[in-house]
Design goal:
Layout: H1 2-11, E1 38-44, E2 50-55, H2 62-67, E3 74-79, E4 84-90, H3 106-125, E5 128-129, E6 138-140, E7 152-154, E8 161-162, H4 188-191, H5 198-201
Antiparallel strand pairs: 1-2, 3-4, 5-8, 6-7
């Protein structure tokens, strides 16, 4: 969790977590794309003590929304930054066939994809690759928050790593690497044991 916490802080353009894990981290500045805030990193007393990472409360993942839509509920979210409708789909009930669920429209899918790509683009601009991109790692904002509920957040940086050094040197391409990520969403390069790069996040 400490490594993941450092990545969150790095993405927020803030300092890394304090050397003393019991200290509370100050709230970092707002990033250029929606990212969950790290409110606290520390140790939970016990035997043995456990690491804890407290972040912003978010909503459902894109995977859970698409696979388990709530009957009769309509999602119509506003992309606040540009004031345009970027995500709209509903699980409508057909009177003749109540079990029938209408899928997300093509327009909605494309607008969600644009939002997701902006998240990945920002991540790569910070010299980091995610290595576990999948619908379950993109969450909607807190439904009780009037602003964040209209956003999509990228989470779970447990497999993330830097692909580029400060001097601009890219990591070396290597073969025979073990698989990292989710088999269902991995690229062909990952299945063949190649070192992951930005292309594999896409």
């Amino acid at each position: 969790l400490y490594a993941e916490c450092k990545i969150y802080m790095w993405l927020h353009c803030s300092t890394t977590p304090p050397s003393n894990p019991t200290e509370t981290n100050p709230k970092p500045p707002k990033p250029p794309v929606p990212l969950p805030y790290v409110h606290h990193y520390g140790l939970l007393p016990g035997n043995p003590p456990k690491n804890i990472l407290i972040m912003s409360m978010l909503g459902e993942s894109l995977q859970s929304i698409v696979e388990n839509p709530i009957t009769g509920r309509k999602f119509s979210l506003i992309f606040v930054a540009h004031r345009i409708d970027f995500f709209s789909f509903s699980s409508k009930v057909n009177n003749n066939n109540p079990s029938k669920i209408y899928p997300m429209t093509l327009k909605s899918g494309l607008m969600v994809m644009m939002k997701v790509l902006k998240q990945i683009e920002f991540l790569h601009s910070r010299r980091i690759i995610h290595r576990d991109i999948k619908p379950a790692n993109f969450l909607m904002g807190n439904p009780k928050d009037k602003v964040s509920k209209y956003e999509i957040y990228l989470v779970d940086f447990g497999f993330a790593k830097k692909y580029c050094r400060k001097n601009g040197q890219h990591i070396a391409e290597r073969k025979g690497r073990s698989m990292t990520g989710t088999i269902r969403y991995c690229s062909m390069n990952v299945h063949m044991g190649c070192e992951q790069g930005r292309r594999d996040d896409l």
